[in-house]
Every structure is written in structure tokens, then in C-alpha cells.
Amino acid sequence: MNSRSKRNWRQRVAIGSNPERNRAHNRRVVLEVIRMHGHLGRTEIARRAQLTAQAVANIVEELLEEGLLIELGRLRSGRGQPPIQFAVNPNGPLTVGVEIAADRLVTVLLDLSGGLRGQSITPLTKTGPDVVPGKVAEEVKRLQSQLDADSAKLLGVGVVMPGPFEIEGMSSVGPATLPGWTGVDAVSLFSKATGEHVVIENDATAAAVGERLYGAGRQIGTFCYLYFGVGLGLGVIQDGRPLRGAFGNAGEIGHVGLVPRKGPVLHGPAGALERFASVYALREHLANAGIHVSTVEDIQRLHDEGSQPLAHWIELAADYLAPTVGMLENIFDPETVIFGGGLPNSVLDAVIMALDPLPVSVATRQQRTAPRILRGQTGQLTAALGAAALPLLDTVSPHLSVAAGSAA
């Protein structure tokens, strides 16, 4: 991203509005400006947020009283009386993020500044709505107890699940989905189990938000994120905002059929992309060779040992993913495409290398400021981090409001 684009994007993320009816928006803008820059004085906050000094003074006072900000005092950096600095309170309210996958439950606890305060990854053998909400509530309480944090300090719980949501013939169909959830009011179930405000989102969209806030997408305003969960999903961040679609189902790329670089063309569900390029596809490929894996560590060990079946899958997946990247570039014109999720970094790097040569697309321009493909930086926690950001964003970030549903 060039300096002009970066500057324009930052301005879009944090511009306030003075009318009283937009007070809630202005509060989020002030918090976001401070969060982005670490600590600021009132005058600098007003300048960056494009709010009046009086509006900023009132909002800062409110946020201090609510425990969302802390006063750092005067930090000397030159001559004259330095302004009092304010920062987001890392010991203030917390948020919980939960990823419910077909084989595991990932839970994280974040503070308001985005700091990771606790995490867990536990296997799931039963994924139905009669079991999972209780498991989630148990993990939330366990993480809180480790920090001695009482529930009054929680802003809410973000829960992400594999989509698509409420689509006959697609939801709860296939190895990467969660059977039994069609027609279920998930928000109410999780809210009742945890006793907290709950937000639900598509896992790939949440993963893109997590990468945007905490990973390789922090300085990139527009990118596509290919999320390797058990299946394969797509999250799109455009001008700093997630692209959700009208019903929260944007990015179901795993159900798309594509022509590979080589090999036979399969039609219908048998030719769906995630049948060849996903964690499930890798496990199935290895099982056919008599190798059974259940964790990221198992896959990492195979890669370290130079496993030929793993190497063969990497080449096969790349044959499908290379045209996928070209298609995404032509449709969305992103600054880059990021690969991340439930595969070891070394395997993702190998897949990215095997994509060469990528097809010609609108991305093959001479003046590029980022590689066409990047590997994500947030690993297995990506979707859960994005999930934790969902209730956080209701308070902090005016442009990343991605809630698909909520309950008090």
C-alpha cells in the first residue's frame, strides 16, 4: 500500500461526527483512534478524529468513568507543558472469542486493547446444539477463573461457526459443517448458556477480521483471506470493512467448482474446491495412504519428516488454489490474498510456493506494493480472535461492525 492510500484508509477508519445524535459513533471513533496510536492527548485525539475539542473532552471523561480509558499523565518529549495522555485500559472489560469447528473448540480471552489474556484449543467429538453451548460456557468460566476476572468485566462473547447459514442442501451438509444447527436460534442458546451478550458470525469472515486487526492485514485496507478450517472459506476485507453479504453467507468458496491447472474436471459436489484444498481434504488424502492425523502438530511432524503423501497433497491443492487466486483477484481487485488458518505455517508456505506460476489477472500489474500472496500471522487462533473482536467492535471500532446477530 502506498503512503497516500494508507493515509486515506486511516482517515476513513477514524473520522467522527459532531451532532449529538451520533454520540455513540463518536465514542467508538475516539476509542479507535487511541487504540490505533497507543496513547494520545485530547488535542491530538480531536485532530485525528475530526471532532471538536469540547466533544473529545466530554467523551474522554465518560470513557474514563466507565473504565475503558486510563490516564497516563504528562509524557515529556520536548519543551513546554506536555498534554495529558490517555490510553485504552488493558485491565478494563474483556471479550471472549469462540470458534466452533467440526473437530475442535478454540476459545480466546482479549482485553480492550486487543491483548491476548487467555486461550484454549479442545477437541470436539459432539458438535450439536444440545452439547456445544454448555461446552462454551465451561471454557469461558475456566479462562475467567485463570485471570480471576468476574463476568461483570465481560463486554460479550463472539461465536463463529462454519457457514453457510440456513441454506437447504448446503447448511449441515458435508464434513466441514455442523449437523443439527439448521433452524436453531444459536444466539439465544449461547446467550442463555453464558449469561452474556452474544454475537454470531461466519468463521471465514471472522478470521479475516482477526487477521485485519492482529496479523498480516493490519496495514492492508483491502484483501481476500482464504481460511483453511476443516473446510475452506473466504473472508473479504474491503476498505477496512468485512464484506458479509445480505445474509452473512458471503465467501462460501469451498462450495465452488473450479477447473484445476491439470487433472480431470469434476462437476457437482464432487468437484467442490474444499474437496481438494482444505484440512479435511488433506486428512482424507493422508488416510488413503495409511496415515492418520488429528492435530496441526501431526501435520507439522509429517512436513518435518518430508512425507511424500503430504508433498503430493500440497501439489494437488496448489493446482486448484492457483486458479482460485486469479479468480479472486479479478473479482475483488485486492491488494493481496492471504492464506491462513488451521495448517502449520511451513505447510502454508509450501502451498504458496507451489502456486507458482500464478495465472495472469488484474493483479499482475507492474506497480505492486505487496506480494500477490501472503501467509497469515495469527495461526489457529485467527477465527477466534476475530470472534472476540465482534463484541469489542461494537464498542471500539466504527467501521468494523460485523455482527450477524446479538442478544443481550
UniProtKB/TrEMBL annotation:
Biased composition regions of type Basic residues, renumbered to the chain: 1-10
Region (Disordered), start-end ranges: 1-21
InterPro entries noted in UniProt: ATPase_NBD (IPR043129), ROK (IPR000600), WH-like_DNA-bd_sf (IPR036388), WH_DNA-bd_sf (IPR036390)
Pfam family for this entry, one: ROK
Entry's family note: Belongs to the ROK (NagC/XylR) family.
Name this protein carries in UniProt: ROK family protein
Taxonomic source organism: Paradevosia shaoguanensis
Classification of source organism: Bacteria, Pseudomonadati, Pseudomonadota, Alphaproteobacteria, Hyphomicrobiales
